[in-house]
Amino acid sequence: MLKKSIKDIVLALLVFVAFVLVYQIWFNSYFLPNGSDYVLKSLRSNIITPIVRLLEGRSNADISQNLQELFKPEKIVLHVSGDRRVYSNGGEGFSQVRAMAGEIISRCMLGDYTVKSKETVDTESFYNVLKGKSIYVDYGKDCDYRLFSFGVCGQEKNRFTEDLSVIRGYIIGLHDGIMNDFSLYIMDQKSGNIYRYMLEGDKEQIEATMNEFMLEPTNSGIPSYSFELNFHKEQEQMETKVVFEPLLLMDLVPKTLPHINSMDQSELERLLQDDLIDNVLEAFSIDGSTTRKYIDLDNERVFVENDATLTIYPNGLLEYQTVQGGRGLNITGGANQGVYDIYAATTHAVDFVARLCNYMPPDYFEHLQLNTDLTEDAQQNGVYRICFDYCIDGTPLQHKTQDGYSHTIEMEIENGYLKSYKQYVKDYEKTEGVWQQEPMLKAADALVDAHYTDKALYIEKIGVCYVENRDGTVAPVWAAVVDGYDRMIE
Amino acid sequence: MVLKRLFHNATKIGVVLMLLVVMMSATVQAYAAPDVLPTAVESTAEELVTLKAPEQLITSTNNRKLPISATAPQGALVSVYRYNYATGYYHKITVGDVPLEAVVGSTMLFAGQVDLNSGMNKFLIRGAWDDSAYTVVKFEVNVLNDGFMDRIKSVISTIFN
Q1: Are the Cβ atoms of B109 and A231 closer than 8 angstroms?
Q2: Dihedral sign for Cα atoms in the order A62, A66, A71, A77
């Protein structure tokens, strides 16, 4: 009898100890840093949400609204009666022109305008449209058409989906005739086909809106496309050292750029106070109370987790790096990772950046521009590198580093997990004074001097970009993409 | 004695400096294209400039600005002139007091932009090594006024209606 009682007491004690240990593990241990919250969050994000999404399928509601905001053209060119205006991202009038072009293309995609005919045209016809009344919207990078479609009209698929897979932009061509139709030209970068859709629409209304924009006075000259200057093909009479991308716009009169100052050190130090750090740690799912942290000799704040390190540098650089073999941070927000493609990767990247930007200086997010090609790379399935540039009046800004140049944000994602992340959290402002821009051909001369051997260089892109030097000063330089390589001309 | 030597050395240096100045000014002069050219000016050398845009020597447009592009050997000085009906000469074009000319670099390309006046605009592009070796290309651009374009449109509109 006594023996049985002792057994019962021991059993009860063991049950009690088990409860205590479970309580310790769930609510007070280092294994589950946030106790019940962590358990509930894990349950919600890893079990409940995926099941719900699996049952519902992917809907537009899953897709980031931030993507629509950040999916901006690099430039929009209006051409009316020999006058041409270029609107760059962030520059004056850009958002209004973007809204106008966005509404037209959106209505085209959603079927508001009847397609009267569809045909493929040659490149000469495509270029010639730009000499007449037209709106040219250039995204400056290859874009997956589903992404483009969502970014423009909020739907993954539309009436042109069958024809197009990768695009860089589109042209709305308005003829001088009396009919009220207009044409939409889009080149599929994958097949090389150029489609012309003739649409029954409100040409007069579009013309009237364009004319309003053209009324704004401008002091600058009219930039020319390289095909208008015949710089897009090899010269017949003499040796050709350089060939320009046909749709590259070249400024033929000298332009000026405003002086730029970066946030001063005391302001930056105020920004990098504990509030921001707490929010950044939260965004990276790092528990500041349990993570190992230290400040090194260079005043860098380092947070070390099991499989990743987050470093906040005094110059405003924030760097997250997963250790080799580490899984990284899940940035899908519980979305289905079954088919992880550029569409999902871009959306998650933009959402992650938008969340972090909530803690940055005001308007920081609005200055950002997606910089990398947004297409599938067959060689690297599920692995994506997505970069953003900070733009000032349409001019991107890069940062000089020990190894070269860096975008404002660079992130690497592998099947929904963030492997590395770099962001400069600084803000910039225009100050008095201007820089006189060197002519573009001078920059091209420098490229030829540095890189020409025996085959003509192919300049895909060339434009001015601000560079923040390591001492914090900012100056403009020419940046180019030559034969697929990024080149800076200093 | 020392003073004499110093004076002698200073004279030598002065002569060398003067020679350098003369040589440099001669070089600069070789690269300074004349501001005015007569209408009868003809090329004295081949292929020192090849006009790429406009593609034709006589063209029409309703644009108010004209892009001009050309190819030329590296080091050649390319200048653009406009015919002045009042003086009967070609005058070098200036854009905000800066002449529309450049020494062609490694790309061997030249580009510029000029304003067009109503009616006929006559231009000349000159590629030169020096005052004696140069190529000139003359071209004309006729600017159609908007009224003319509108009349064409209204005629078409009347026919269709």
Answers
A1: yes
A2: positive
For residues B136 and B42, the answer to whether their CB atoms sit within 8 Å is yes
Q: Taking CA atoms, what residue in A is nearest to B160?
A: A178
pLDDT < 70: residue spans in chain B: 1-31, 146-161
Query: What distance in Å separates the CA atoms of residue A472 and residue A31, rounded to the nearest whole number?
Result: 42
Asked whether the beta carbons of A394 and A91 are under 8 A apart, the reply is yes
Give tens-digit pLDDT for B84-123: 999 999 999 998 888 999 999 999 999 999 999 999 999 9
Please tell me the distance from the alpha carbon of residue B13 to that of residue B25, in angstroms, as a whole number. Answer: 18
Q: List the beta strands (DSSP E) in B32-99.
A: 36-38, 50-53, 58-61, 65-71, 77-84, 89-92, 94-95, 98-99
Measured between beta carbons, the chain B residues lying within 8 angstroms of A217 are none
Chain B: residue whose CA lies nearest to A219: B96
What are the pLDDT digits (tens) for A178-215? Answer: 788 899 999 999 999 999 999 988 888 899 999 998 88
Token couple for A315: 């110059």
Distance CA A459, CA A236 (A): 19
Task: Quickly list H helices, A363-474.
Answer: 440-451
Question: E strands along A216-327, which residues?
Answer: 224-225, 242-244, 249-250, 256-262, 292-295, 301-304, 308-312, 317-322
Whether A230 has its CB under 8 Å from any CB of chain B: the answer is yes
- Residue A351 CB burial class (10 angstroms; 0-12, 13-18, ≥19): buried
Enumerate residues 6+ apart whose C-beta is below 8 A from A89.
Answer: A72, A73, A74, A75, A369, A391, A394
Residues A396, A74: contact at Cβ < 8 Å?
no
Domains assigned to chain A? 2-60 (no CATH), 71-220 (no CATH), 262-429 (3.30.310.160)
As beta bridge partners, residue A418 has: A329, A413
- Tokens 């947004």, residue located: A374
Q: What is the ipTM of this complex?
A: 0.78
* Contact status, residue B45 vs residue B72, Cβ threshold 8 Å: no
Report whether pLDDT(A479) > 90. yes
B67:A252 CB<8 A: yes
Cβ A115 vs Cβ A197: under 8 Å: yes
Buried b (16+ CB within 10 A) or exposed e, A331-346: bbebbbeeebebbbbb
Tokens of A172: 């709305």
Give the strand pairing for A409-414 and A242-244.
unpaired
Residue with tokens 């030329």: B72
Spatial distance between the Cα atoms of A267 and A432, rounded to a whole number of angstroms: 20
B158 interfaces chain A, CB cutoff of 8 Å: no
Mention the CATH class of domain B36-160.
mainly beta
With tokens 């609107």, the residue in question is: A87
User: DSSP states of A431-456 as a string?
Assistant: EEEEEEPPPHHHHHHHHHHHH-SSS-
Q: Give the residue extent of every domain in chain B.
A: 36-160
| Among the listed residues A160, A69, A143, the one whose alpha carbon sits nearest the alpha carbon of residue A342 | A143
